[in-house]
Amino acid sequence: MRAEWIGRALAAATALGAAGAEAQESAADFYRGKVMKIVVGFPPGGGFDLYARVLAEHLPRFIPGAPKIAVENMPGAATARAAAHVFKIAPQDGTVLGLFHHGLLADQALATKPDEFDVVKFNWIGRMATRLNVGVTSRASGVKTIDDARKTPVVMGATAPTATSAMVPRAVNKATGAMFNPVLGYQGSADMTLAMERGEIGGFATAAWRDLSRDRAEWVKSGAVSVVFQISTKGAPDLPGVPTLPELAANDDDRPMLELLARTEDMGRAFPVGPRVPADRVALLREAFAKMMADPDFLKEAARLDFEIDFMRGEALQSFVATVGGLAPEQRARIREILMPPARP
């Protein structure tokens, strides 16, 4: 009886092993001859679009079967249109990746967009890069630090009421007692940089640190501008002493708000596939993505294009994104009230 039981157990184990090997082989063979797609929520020509096109060029070398990858631009609704497409319309077979604005993370947490997708339920494949934004003030503003901003009001350029450029100053004001005054209507960071040069504003919250330190290095060195805070959960090595948003929290009530805004920016250029893609294909794509990110040819081209590279594996990214669901309803309501005050009549 014992020998018969052992024989059955060994047969079952052999069958399971064969099934696992067959499933792995099936996932590897699936992509042979396929044409994959990256749905980008931005128009052609911008930074996100360029990252997607470089991915489309290099990733196929690391996917068994070497499929081709095409890029499809699908702008609209601050990239929510593209996200909804990948989430519920595109094939759920691992042939369609997406690239959306990282602000969708905060939008979902604060329920500012229609419920057409769930950022947490995407299968995240990997992050190519972050783009560290910092809060800057001009010498003319008289403010160099958060302590200064508690004593001296500063007009801060911003784009729209629910944009990072407006929400971050409101959050910092609440957490620290600073007196940043967001003024809306600017088109973007380039527009706000010119406005700061003209003296129209005293600063803005979304200066790209890499661009500023490279293209306007003399501003920082001479003190023409000061970096007041970093919109990130971890400080940049070349910004010692400049606080990240979470470090500005004086209490546990404000910390979730600041962490949400910082985490949103840390999301960066991250690529998911749909929520119902089979697990073996998700694992295959994550591994291919990781190999590409360490590939010398890819890194050489990234350096030529002056890409900001900050790789995060898909498994870690999945956990990272999941924290967006950690806000209790009362926290969400409080943060919405602070970051998105009702319009004035």
Compose a concise summary of this entry.
With 345 residues, the chain is of the alpha/beta class. Helices cover 44% and strands 17% of the residues. It has a five-stranded mixed sheet, with helices on both faces. Strands 2-1-3 form a three-stranded parallel sheet, sandwiched between helices.
Q: List the domain count as a whole number.
A: 2
Query: What is the chains' assembly state?
Result: single chain
Q: Compute the CA-based radius of gyration.
A: 23 Å
Counting helices, strands and paired strands, the structural category is alpha/beta
Helix residue percentage: 40-55%
| Total of helices | 14
Trace the largest sheet across and list its strands. 7-6-8-5-9
**Global geometry:** globular
The appropriate CATH architecture of the largest domain is: 3-Layer(aba) Sandwich
Largest sheet: 5 strands, mixed
CATH class descriptor name of the largest domain: Alpha Beta
How far apart the termini lie comes to 85 Å
The CATH topology of the largest domain is D-Maltodextrin-Binding Protein, domain 2
Q: What does this 3D model show about the protein?
A:
The chain is of the alpha/beta class and 345 residues long. It folds into two domains: 23-130 and 268-331, D-Maltodextrin-Binding Protein, domain 2 (3-Layer(aba) Sandwich), CATH 3.40.190.150; 133-264, 3-Layer(aba) Sandwich (D-Maltodextrin-Binding Protein, domain 2), CATH 3.40.190. Helices cover 44% and strands 17% of the residues. The strands form three sheets. Strands 7-6-8-5-9 form a five-stranded mixed β-sheet, with helices on both faces. A three-stranded parallel β-sheet has the order 2-1-3, with helices on both faces. The protein has a three-stranded antiparallel β-sheet with strand order 10-4-11. The relative contact order is 0.16.
